[in-house]
Amino acid sequence: MLEIKDFSITFNKGTVDERKGLENFSLSLDDGDFVTVIGSNGAGKSTLLNTICGSYKVDSGKIVLDGMDITNQKEHRRARFIGRLFQDPLRGTAPHMTIEENLALAYGRGSRPGLAFGVKKSDEKIFKEKLAELDLGLEDRLKTPVGLLSGGQRQALTLLIATIVTPKLLLLDEHTAALDPKTADKVMELTDKIIKKHSITTLMITHNIRNALDYGNKTILLSQGRLVLVLEGEERKSMTVENLMKLYSTTAADSFSDKMIL
Amino acid sequence: MFSINALELGLIFSIMTMGVFVSLRILNIPDLSVDGSIVLGLAVSSYFTIHGMPILGIFLSFFAGTLAGAVTGLLITKMKIQPILAGILTMTALYTVNFRIMGRPNLDLPVETKRLGNDYYTIFTPFEELLGKDWHVVIVVSLIVLIIAVLLYLFMKTQIGISLRATGDNEHMVRATSINADGMKVLGLALANGLVSLSGGIWAHQQQTADISNGLGMLVASLAAIIIGEVIFKKTNVISGILAAISGIIIYRYIYSIALTFGLRGEDLKLITAVIVVGIIGIKMIRFKDIFAKLGSGNGGGKNA
Prior knowledge:
By secondary structure, chain A is of the alpha/beta class. Chain A has helices at residues 45-53, 75-78, 99-107, 121-134, 151-163, 181-198, 209-214, 233-237, 241-261, and strands at residues 2-11, 19-29, 34-39, 60-65, 68-69, 82-85, 169-173, 201-205, 218-223, 226-232. Chain A has a single domain, classed as P-loop containing nucleotide triphosphate hydrolases (Rossmann fold), CATH 3.40.50. In chain A, strands 6-7-8-3-9-10 form a six-stranded mixed β-sheet, sandwiched between helices. A four-stranded antiparallel β-sheet of chain A has the order 2-1-4-5, covered by helices on one side. In chain A, a hairpin with a 2-residue loop joins β4 and β5. Chain A is globular. Chain B is mainly α. Chain B has one domain. Helix content of chain B is 77%, strand content 2%. Chain B is built from 14 helices and two strands, in the order ααααβααααααβαααα. A two-stranded antiparallel ribbon of chain B has the order 1-2. In chain B, α1 runs antiparallel to α10. Chain B starts with a helix and ends with a helix. Mean pLDDT of chain B is 90; it is low at 299-305. Chain A binds chain B through residues 53, 75-77, 79-80, 83-84, 86, 90-97, 101-102, 104-106, 108-110, 113-119, 145, 161-162, and chain B through 155, 157-163, 165-166, 169-170, 172-181, 236-237.
């Protein structure tokens, strides 16, 4: 489904601030895999997601999505198949436009925008149904500007925007981290529900180790731009939060001592 | 005190202000090339008028403007030049282009047309007898403004229009929904400058002259107009924005013409425009509620004492 081969990316090349983002990073996902990604700050988790969706250009390596080489495709072209959510709930929606206009924009994903009206009467029914699934009462507020919604509502709406046309790949970058614990749980459950319903192949970055084990079918651990651990199957089932924390802190300590030496 | 000329100019420049509304408010890009684009419209329109093709000139002034806007857009998106610098570059380049089109700094359209052996007429000529000498320009331009305002409103509701607005509102979101944000910026700036230039094209027919320095201060005037208009139409949706642009520039032109009747000269008005902009921003910053609250509490305190 998703094949990443030998990704390497270096930031600030040729300066004193030169830093390896990813180093010979390879990863292969099967159809319908829901992979949770953990690792300390600066381990390369967000860099990985940003290179997959094309925000960053890799120095070397290859990425194949569903049999198609997208290594040299531009960001907005890749966005036809890749949905994504960021930590900041403000990033995924246009605040001065209404809920239905935001959804209409996403509903046209993959097709070139034309001169037909953006929000069609026939779409409204679909939007209402989809919003009702979020169970936040947004289905009656189609004409409300998105800027008036709370962070949790906006992130839930962004989730809908990213999945209203089912993507081949969904990238979640700590998308519940900025929400209060209760809302975070709700958005996480919604995410899981939507992913399962459409069996979307997903990569989810999280700092919540419990979430990393509770959701999805695989967990990967990154350190210093490298893949250091893949957990799946029985090994993952028997893994406890405590043990994973231990593994996590040993790799984090490695990178920390490296930094101290530097 | 009522001046038809102020109303005529207000209506003609409302097309320009709608253009500035598109770049500044919808795309969220400060496009400084306006002073050049409006003269481009004047120059193109004048050129075709003196060669006996005034109607063609009006249409071509719009297209010339879209080209200029596209250049600014490409400078911003492909060359990654700061929007403000990109606008200044286009404006500087346009000075030469405009000069070349006009051939010299000032054109008197009726005189030049006759010198070239053509019949002189403008888009307003056929309506002069029908609608009366005083009002025909106002009526014709009002219709044009109405049509453009409706088309602009409808355009902003289309798929492209929504994508354009979202690009100015949240570029991250637009990129993530597979829309080419760079393309939208180029398109939006082309549309914005097309409107500005079209406004210049119609202006040429109204004032029957074209001068290379006519564009001076037009951007600031548009900004002033948008700020004034937004005091009246406070909502941030498309229809309020368009109405703010139109009403703002008409009010601005009236303030301008009143200032002239008080004995101020043309040269003084640039300073006045700048003062109007600063003044309106200042008024918007003052929170009247707080002032009234202060006055109220002051009185209350007095009574208690």
